[in-house]
Amino acid sequence: MRRVVIVAFPDFQLLDVTGPWEVLGRTTRWLAEHGRAGGYALELTARQRGPLVCSSGLSLGVPQAFRELRGALDTLVVAGGVGTERALGDRALVGYVKRASRRARRTASVCTGAFLLAEAGLLDGRRATTHWNACARLAARYPAVEVEPDPIFVKDGRIWTSAGVTAGMDLALALVEEDHGRDVALGVARELVLFLKRPGGQAQFSAQLRAQLAERDSLRQLQAWMVEHPTADLSVAALARRVALSPRHFARLFKTETGATPARAVLAARVEAARRRLEDGADGLDGVAAASGFGSAEVMRRAFLRTLRVGPAVYRRRFRRAS
Predict the structure, then answer these.
(1) Residues 188-217: tens digit of each pLDDT
(2) I need a labelling partner for 4 at 20 to 30 A (CA). Which of 195, 221, 235, 268 fits?
(3) Which residues, 6 or more positions from 96, have their beta carbon under 8 angstroms from its beta carbon?
(4) Domains and their CATH numbers in the chain
(5) Sign of the Cα pseudo-torsion (197, 171, 300, 317, in order)
């Protein structure tokens, strides 16, 4: 059994703890039900034992304070949440995270738990991610950390960091895959009725979620239409005509309201369309490229390398769903 210690603090994010806990706990049961050895011995700890209230008001019982924990551990997981800022000033907590990480095989954080890893010096010179809304703050506060704002999770050596909230379950499934193989991780994902074990290279925001960022209804409708019609003429001139604006005014307004240029939004929509076809379909790369609005498989390959840091052929081999 692999010993996993999850560290929390007042006003932690509940799913940062219970999400990974449920994945790892369900893995232990899955392995037993399939006659396979191994699993996880899970422990929750905080500065003191007793009830610990999360940011949504629910309490979890902490059986042991971290100063009471002894012995080696396999995995240290640090939660995040709205209480992170106060937790950063708790020198005993930060010190425990630093010491416990030394005797752990690997260390992970969920959401803004990355700030505690950074405060303990564990992310210096490493790549890391956190909740999309906190990435800029993490980079500004800890310039020695290479913050990547897009991925669901990042592994750099023995240190793992994940994006916000439910991404902790994606990270936990990745830990399960590392320990027990892809078949176990996928089996557990199905048991938990998760849509898919998302790879770390996938973006925190899908193109559909990004489409909700525009303020004007006409632009939101246009963004949704772009996602649904990746093979259409998505030039600035054509898009501007759909919302009855001049190309120059449209491009400026789109960037102001969404934070991205029209070209970047089009690229994101087409990459996502291609990803879905690579994960679900059997078309060749030329067919996927054509159906996703790319001029050729080579254009699609360059887009994948630029946005996902992996080519479409490798992406399909890694992430194609089992039938």
Answers:
(1) 988 888 755 555 555 555 555 555 567 788
(2) 195
(3) 7, 66, 67
(4) 2-191 (3.40.50.880), 207-319 (1.10.10.60)
(5) negative
